[in-house]
Amino acid sequence: MCGIVGAVAERNVTAILLEGLKRLEYRGYDSAGVALFSNAGVLERRRRVGKVNELEQSLAGDPLAGRLGIAHVRWATHGAPTEQNAHPHFSNGELAVVHNGIIENHESLRERLQGLGYVFTSDTDTEVIAHLLHHKLRDIPDLAAALKATVKELHGAYGLAVISAKQPDRLVAARSGSPLVVGLGLGENFLASDQLALRQVTDRFMYLEEGDIAEIRRDSVQIWTAAGLPVEREVVQYREGAEAADKGEFRHFMLKEIHEQPKVVQRTLEGRLGQEQVLVQAFGPQAAELFAKVRNVQIVACGTSYHAGMVARYWLEGLAGIPCQVEVASEFRYRKVVVQPDTLFVSISQSGETADTLAALRNAKLRSPKEGGFLASLAICNVGISSLVRESDLTLLTQAGPEIGVASTKAFTTQLVALMLLTLSVGQVQGSLEPGVEAELVEELRRLPTRLGEALAMDSTVEKVAELFAEKSHTLFLGRGAQFPVAMEGALKLKEISYIHAEAYPAGELKHGPLALVDSDMPVVTVAPNNELLEKLKSNLQEVRARGGELIVFADEQAGLNDGTGTHVISMPHIVDALAPILYTIPLQLLSYYVAVLKGTDVDQPRNLAKSVTVE
Ligand code: F6R
Predict the structure, then answer these.
(1) Of the ranges 130-139, 311-320, 566-575, 582-591, which one carries the lowest mean pLDDT score?
(2) Strands across the sheet with 89-91, in order?
(3) Which end of the chain is more exposed for a tag (fewer CB within 10 A), N or C?
């Protein structure tokens, strides 16, 4: 998704801006650009379709230099990914604007500004901001004050940064629905949509809050709230994650992140397990009192995070006896929802900035419990400073560390761990768990990082299996019970990074339609832990073999499944059934990774996708 970098300094900032853009590449984008207030006293810009590399090469051949600048990577929403539509956008050569998000009323603003004589050179919604601000500056000469007046007329989501040739000692910024962070240097200051972009220049940050306007000069930062009142934002020292932007010994971030899972699962459990119990206060001081009241759970999330929620439904109902509904946020947010009394709203998100998930949370909070609303909101999230965390009543942070690969891996398994902690906490407080279950699962959770390490040791076996897929165009993924969402996640991973069409079904549904697709060209991937559904699953696998379908089965070492013609069984370490969804995710991640490598796709930045989907 789009990314912003800005800098005001006494030195040339071009290299800082380019390095910042490179650090944002993981978010997915299709063009890049930079604008500088040049030493000749004018605004100059360079934009390129494609990767930041191309912009860099162009600047190497024909340099731009300046001590004030803004830069952007764009993921097209309004208007095709062309050079004309790439940011920064100019107004009358005087202003340059970069913007993340969507301006919903851009059409009416465009008409009005065209009526005022402004000429548009792009199809973007962003260009209206540049011209509207230019228009405001006629009556309000100060740049920050004019920006305050401008954003009052914008509907939608934005994180934006502006520089002006007439006030070249500052850059101004505004945040509403799209994150921005100010980076503090010595005699120089910076701005970005993600602090990762500025890690090479500073480790001190100020996070803008919803509605904030900022004026950033070399030696000062001034911030105003949406109401126009001056405000101080806390300065936060950033320590963790310095290594995250580095692939280390791995060929791709995705592979590195897959292999980090034992470590980050361990971290997610740290301080949250007692001798034989989960420490409920990990969810916050008021959690125990709140969990005692919970009669239902509503989970809302998108993509991979939604799959984590689907697994949690099996756990919350099966282990804690709490009714649970799970829905994708883009549907939930627009539905008239009937809320059962005492329902806990749980959002799951790696980034905590996903537009649909945030909107769903905001809608959920509109009504109090007395007015038929939710009891409280809980965010399971990987980013402590995200909007989702700030706006939820309770939080449990997954400790996955920054995830750079667009395809989510370690975020998913740590979400599952967090959701298991939630299940056990609610069950514990309500006394609804079967005797001994909590102590057993706490013990098994402690062993989980080791188990994940064992599954990762299958790396080269899975790499071999991947060869079966290199020439295929379609695949089916099957699972039963809590393994069905695992199959869905496996299919999502494969389609995302290898572009092979992959569908997931609960294995019992096969004969109700999808079996018609099965032939020797359709590999069928199955996850088969040793549980009470194993025998049923084996019958489903027979149905596939009888139609000539090739089976790839990740099966418990005690499942009694063996290799045979057209059947490839990969033995998995035994694990207690409740935690099997976490373990069985690993070989499916590795499988999609190695298939993508064989197909030569862009593993870390698959086409058309973005890391953090901050637009609708
Ligand atoms: C898939 C993937 C996406 C995200 C989804 C939600 O690999 O990463 O499906 O899971 O965009 O993102 P978050 O979890 O940041 O809300």
Answers:
(1) 566-575
(2) 89-91, 95-103, 156-164, 170-176, 213-217, 221-224, 230-231
(3) C
